[in-house]
Amino acid sequence: DICYCIWILFSCKKLCQCFNIDGNHPRIFTGPEDALFGFSVLQHESGGEKLMLVGAPWDGPPNNRRGDVYKCVVGEERNSNCSKVGLGETALQNVSKNLKNSHLGMTLTPDSPDGFLACAPLWSQECGTSKFSTGICASVSDDLQPRKTISPTTKRCATYMDIVIVLDGSNSIYPWYEVQNFLSNILSKFHIGSDQMQVGILQYGEIAVHEWSLKDYQTTEKVVEAAKNISRQKGRETRTASAIRMACAERGGREGATKVMIVVTDGESHDEDELPDALEECERRNITRYAIAVLGHYIRRQEDPETFINEIKDIASDPDEKYFFNVTDEAALNDIVDALGDRIFSLEGTLGYNESSFHLEMSQIGFSTHTLDDGILFGMVGAYDWDGGVLKEGVNGRIVPPREAFESEFPLELKNHAAYLGYTVSSVVIGNWRTLYVAGAPRFKHKGKVILFEFTDDSGIGSYFGSEVCGLDIDQDGITDVLLIAAPMFLSSGNKEGGKVYIYSLSGEGFFVPNGTLKSEKKSQDARFGYALAAAPDLNHDDLTDLVVGAPLEDEHIGAIYIYHGDGIYINNNYKQRIPGSSLYPSLQYFGRSVSARLDLDGDDLIDLAVGAQGNAVLLSSRSIVQVKVSLSFQPHSINVIQKTCQRGSRESACLNATACFTATSLSCLCKCGDTHPPKSLRKDHQRDSFFICQDTADYIRPISFSLRFKINNTKTDSASLPHTSAQIPFFKDCGEDDVCTTDLVLNARMDISGTRGRSIQSEFQCFPHRQKPYVIRSTHRRLAVEVQLQNRLENAYNTSLKLHYSRNLHFSSLSIRVTHIALALDATNPPYFNPMSSSFCFFNIGGCLL
């Protein structure tokens, strides 16, 4: 018989709420899936209104994915609609008229001291026929108004030019329509715009006239159309020097623009004495001059053009082979259009348009950002031919480390391997409040690498690999305790992209040393665990920073997030909570692609989680945490099987009362903002009494285990994880004050027949209980009786057992037990205790003569 142990499901209604993150009541915000709504998320507060900002970088028609940001109001309605903020149109309108496919909203980051950054890393700058994805970010105020744009790697195009064409319109130019064709063809090659080329035309003969000034036309189409309507000025003289002097002072020139002059003429100047002064003025104004000699007039008259050609060479900048052209007639002007255009386009820029190497032109600013106390750290994933780089935009200016700054970590001989340095950026604070910057290069040698560095002459103190980084100040003392490096495409079993997060802890010497890993569920599947990482200030109210990890490909691309709690100055390697997307909303996809955990959005003073998915954004609320302490007490304190205190049916039994006392204490401050109150006990000494009956048992040494499991109402918890407590109830042994039983057992045995070697059975048994020599007995009886007497001379002996060994030729027949001095029913094979004397008779049938 055993003593029954039961479960008590104790109701704590109104006593406490469920633990940690509420997975039962998510708030689902839905947006256009084809706009990649949910690509990024950020918690935000504006004028007392709690918002979740959601990036939709593919927002817009198919031919113009401008991108935008949506605001989702966290109000009383569980699943409210989201509205477009309109940053895609307003935030970048002063930067470029070409806002096509800028993909604003790929990155959302808190700005310092307020507001946030919305970035468009694929925003491209058009320069001539080329597009450079320099990237751009918009700084937005708390009230969602754009403040300024940040594009530190955007430079003026090589085509930022002011071009003046000085055109000979004297009588000798013929036919005029060929000149008009030339103008149309060369102008159609120019990229006219406020941030690229401006073109003005001055026609001269005896006098010089502005056909139009530099700022008059801002598109190529309008300039070409205007050129078709230019009529010849005519005139008997060609006053080239005067025209050049007037062109040097062309109105509408822009500061910083490359100044270019194209002189087209068919004869020697009539004011050649003034030409040196005019050219000197051009040199002083840093004007590059192209000169084209049209020889048609000389050929038609069969005159020698040598003097004319020498004059035109003097007008052209040096060297002549680059800036001087001559053509046989007006029709041949169209033959040099391409060559002239190529030479003009190769004037400016550090690289030129036909070179294959890039510095910062493809940097994609905004692909990764990290807010610092004194500025912003940008990753430049596309810089230096996709080797990548970093840039700091701070209050003290801009710092752009050159490619050679990371040569020790990224050798120049590997420069074409596209390491993607700057794919993710962060910072950590170590001893002496020293700040180190962190940048990931996930494609370095196809394995990945992360470097820690300072903006000084010193090199980085260590290097690791990963594609997402996150520094955690676990104990919130201002010093980074843990650096997390994610490798979301780490191949797990079955060649699946399971993902892994590497943990590095700060050592006493100021180095980050490996300290384990975090992984997703053990089953083989694509998970991309670590695709998103976010520090949560304190989810479980122990004053330690926690961690949220996204795994958007888990469960057939439905996705999941994992919650890890801080532990001292470390992160607990075992996740505290896993929230699969399938448990929240049936159609979620890629849940966990982005996470944000920094604000209370539902007004309960608890940190909430914002999680991005494909076409959805999910808000998960924290729940209040209640610490429940349970104490168990019993009356009586031990079980006395001799004294029967109750009846079970018609049978007397030993009974006891068990009392469970519950004390619940809230660890969450549920006060209004500004109030400071210590955690308070919600209810004290709430108890529940239960009555138990203990039946007889064969084991009075081991105490009875009492296990109590309880459940909090309205929680979703499986039975294996129910909180529980246990206690043990001993049996009353009656062994004195010290409760230690001291025994003195004496054993005697006899047989009713004799055997060889002339010794008594008793002495033979006592002296040689395990002898190996055969002992032969002879008897006329077919039955053998053995009497065993066991006596206890001191205190109670519990769980005493007696074993009787006999040979195979004996067959056990029967057993009788006789107890003296005590009236207690005993189990013959396992009596509970002996006090003071017990004897047994065993009978055997004899099947042979060897014992």
TrEMBL record:
Gene3D superfamilies per record: Integrin alpha, N-terminal, Integrin domains. Chain A, domain 2, ntegrin, alpha v. Chain A, domain 3, von Willebrand factor, type A domain
PROSITE patterns with a match to the protein in the record: FG_GAP, VWFA
One cellular component (GO) term of this entry: external side of plasma membrane
Biological process, per Gene Ontology: cell adhesion mediated by integrin; cell-cell adhesion; cell-matrix adhesion; integrin-mediated signaling pathway
Keywords: Calcium, Cell adhesion, Disulfide bond, Glycoprotein, Integrin, Membrane, Metal-binding, Receptor, Repeat, Signal, Transmembrane, Transmembrane helix
Record-level Gene Ontology MF annotations: integrin binding; metal ion binding
Pfam families: FG-GAP, Integrin_A_Ig_1, Integrin_A_Ig_2, VWA
Primary location class: membrane
Localization, UniProt: Membrane
InterPro entries membership: FG-GAP (IPR013517), Int_alpha_beta-p (IPR013519), Integrin_alpha (IPR000413), Integrin_alpha_Ig-like_1 (IPR013649), Integrin_alpha_Ig-like_2 (IPR048285), Integrin_alpha_N (IPR028994), Integrin_dom_sf (IPR032695), VWF_A (IPR002035)
Family: Belongs to the integrin alpha chain family.
Protein name, per record: Integrin, alpha 10
Natural source organism: Oryzias sinensis (Chinese medaka)
Taxonomic classification: Eukaryota, Metazoa, Chordata, Craniata, Vertebrata
